[in-house]
Design the sequence.
């Protein structure tokens, strides 16, 4: 078993969207998970407004770091490293976190680790269920991502098997909540209403599940439109909308496809466990159906508690601790935010722009860096 | 006293060390798109070159803008974090005050304008009685709307150089220097004056634009 004396103590900073998260972990043990959210400020826009998020991150950052240190009961000088989400995410929001992490690591004289947001979503499960099996199959679903990933080493090898070709699963929840006038964000309220509805009341389409469709890719745009159309037709006919049934049937269509494809990927790749992360992993029906299907397929399911599924600093710290434990190269002081960091780049080592990434392979692509920088200052 | 000054509110990434009496060292790089990448290495080089460490710093001075937000936040977040980590005060100075200080307009030159590029065909600007005395501003406006108020006055800064039809007598310096910013702060601290809180002067509300991937997709 792991030797606790040598486990790294790492502070992680996450600002890729609207949550200012600062977490502290000791190896695979969670010590603090401080989050300041600007979600209420975005609610009236029905989505996250990047400039509002960036402003909120700057205001909340130092107080959130302070709170995490207090909660963890650790001294900053005892940290073994500072980790930060380098991407992907909202460019301006990421930059605030990266800037804070660099300044903090520099001031403390600690190594800095710029890490990948998606790999962090997977790694966070170590805080809940112990070391990740290798390889690990992961289904990441949130407002920003819907991906099936296979990782043999979370610090160096994450392979994308499939991803959404249009909208993220969480976006579909937000959009349907908007059509039903339930407010933003849509996930929690749809989950709640769906519990009182009939998931088989309306047969909504399952995207990309035909025999010729990509086995592991997702599409939620068509579903979104189908649900909106169904609701508008009822409204046009002057009929009352059965909100609970719509919520349940829509949710069922989403989680049916997600779990079906994830279980299939596990079988195809011979992986006997599945990790589910991201904000949508907090959905109770997704958890229940995944459990049912995994059980039937002989697959062990690992889903962190809801608070660790949404964006937070602990997940970044968890991956940072793994970087330290596995002696991965630290980032340098030039580290910049990369809004479209490919999932294959698990971290951003200091010599990344001088040498090719030692673990890069056919799936990495860096074509978007220039546009990312344009975004940053537009 | 050892002040570390930094400003990222203009295309310049600029850093300086000041001992309360004079500027010990400074460095300025102009690259409007790489504030995040350049600032910390610049601080490191500055300190190392002066044979000092960040732990020697007794106060941080930061330009609080106005300036393009993304770059502006890099300086403020860095200053804020340094202040927290070192347990030292962080003093805010209006970036335009730094530019006014660095202008070569002498104390008897009379009123002049400082203007920087606010993008979207606007300028951030302020009116100064002399290089140390702000009269009005900072504000953000279209140059044409200022013509009456700034007519005949000398003007410094990239915003002035960019719009010669409004600012006929435009001059250097183009961008702020942290050396000037540090000097402003040192003089004000010596005089017992209150400095600004280290909070950005945005001057505009955020564009309430929902990102593309959240756009309404109404069925056709
Ligand atoms: Zn996320």
Sequence:
């Amino acid at each position: 078993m792991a030797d606790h004396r040598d486990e790294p103590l790492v502070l992680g900073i996450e600002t890729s969207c609207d949550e200012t998260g600062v977490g502290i972990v000791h190896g695979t043990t969670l010590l603090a998970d401080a989050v300041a959210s600007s979600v209420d400020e975005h609610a009236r826009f029905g989505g996250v407004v990047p400039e509002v998020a960036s402003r909120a991150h700057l205001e909340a950052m130092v107080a959130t770091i302070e709170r995490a240190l207090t909660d963890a009961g650790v001294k900053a000088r005892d940290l073994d490293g500072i980790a930060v989400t380098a991407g992907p995410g909202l460019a301006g929001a990421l930059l605030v976190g990266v800037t804070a992490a660099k300044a903090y690591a520099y001031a403390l004289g600690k190594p800095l680790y710029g890490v990948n947001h998606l790999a962090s979503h997977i790694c966070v499960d170590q805080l809940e269920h112990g070391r990740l099996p290798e390889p690990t199959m992961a289904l990441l679903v949130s407002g920003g991502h819907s991906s099936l990933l296979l990782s043999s080493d979370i610090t160096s090898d994450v392979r994308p098997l499939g991803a959404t070709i249009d909208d993220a699963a969480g976006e579909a929840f937000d959009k349907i909540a908007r059509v039903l006038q339930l407010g933003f964000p849509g996930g929690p309220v749809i989950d709640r209403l769906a519990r009182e509805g009939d998931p088989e009341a309306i047969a909504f389409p399952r995207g990309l599940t035909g025999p010729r469709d990509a086995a592991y890719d997702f599409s939620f745009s068509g579903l979104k439109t189908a649900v909106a159309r169904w609701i508008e037709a009822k409204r046009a006919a002057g009929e009352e909308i059965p909100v609970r049934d719509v919520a349940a049937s829509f949710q069922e269509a989403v989680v049916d496809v997600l779990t079906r494809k994830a279980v299939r990927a596990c079988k195809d790749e011979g992986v006997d466990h599945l990790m589910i992360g991201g904000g949508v992993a907090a959905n109770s029906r997704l958890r229940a159906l995944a459990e049912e299907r995994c059980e039937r397929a002989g697959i062990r399911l690992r889903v962190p508690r809801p608070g660790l599924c949404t964006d937070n600093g602990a997940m970044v710290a968890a991956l940072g601790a793994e970087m330290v434990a596995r002696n991965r190269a630290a980032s340098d002081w030039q580290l910049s935010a990369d809004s479209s960091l490919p999932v294959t780049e698990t971290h951003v080592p200091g010599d990344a722009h001088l040498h090719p990434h030692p673990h890069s392979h056919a799936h990495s692509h860096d074509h978007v860096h220039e546009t990312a920088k344009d975004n940053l200052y537009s | 006293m050892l002040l570390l000054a930094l400003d990222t509110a203009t295309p310049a990434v600029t850093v300086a060390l000041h001992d309360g009496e004079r500027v010990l060292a400074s460095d300025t790089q102009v690259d409007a798109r790489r504030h995040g990448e350049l600032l910390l290495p610049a601080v490191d080089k500055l300190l190392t070159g002066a044979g000092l460490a960040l732990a020697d710093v007794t106060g941080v001075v930061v330009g609080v803008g106005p300036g393009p937000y993304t770059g502006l936040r890099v300086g403020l977040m860095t200053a804020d974090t340094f202040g927290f980590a070192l347990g030292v005060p962080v003093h805010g100075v209006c970036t335009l005050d730094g530019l006014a200080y660095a202008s070569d307009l002498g104390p008897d030159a009379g009123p002049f304008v400082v203007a920087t590029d606010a993008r979207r065909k606007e300028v951030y600007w302020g009116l100064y009685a002399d290089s140390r005395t702000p009269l009005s501003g900072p504000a953000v406006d279209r140059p044409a709307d200022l013509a009456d108020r700034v007519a005949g006055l000398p003007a410094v800064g990239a915003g002035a150089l960019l719009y010669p039809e409004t600012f006929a007598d435009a001059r250097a310096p183009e961008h702020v220097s942290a050396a000037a910013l540090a000097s402003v702060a040192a003089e004000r601290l010596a005089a017992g004056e209150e400095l600004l809180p280290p909070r950005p002067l945005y001057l505009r509300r955020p564009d309430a634009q929902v990102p593309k991937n959240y756009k309404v997709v109404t069925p056709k």
Q: What stands out?
A: Residues A 117, 121, 142, 144, 278, 311 surround zinc ion (CB under 6 Å). The longest strand of chain A covers residues 29-37. Residues 352-378 of chain A have pLDDT under 50 and may be disordered. The longest helix of chain A spans residues 243-269.
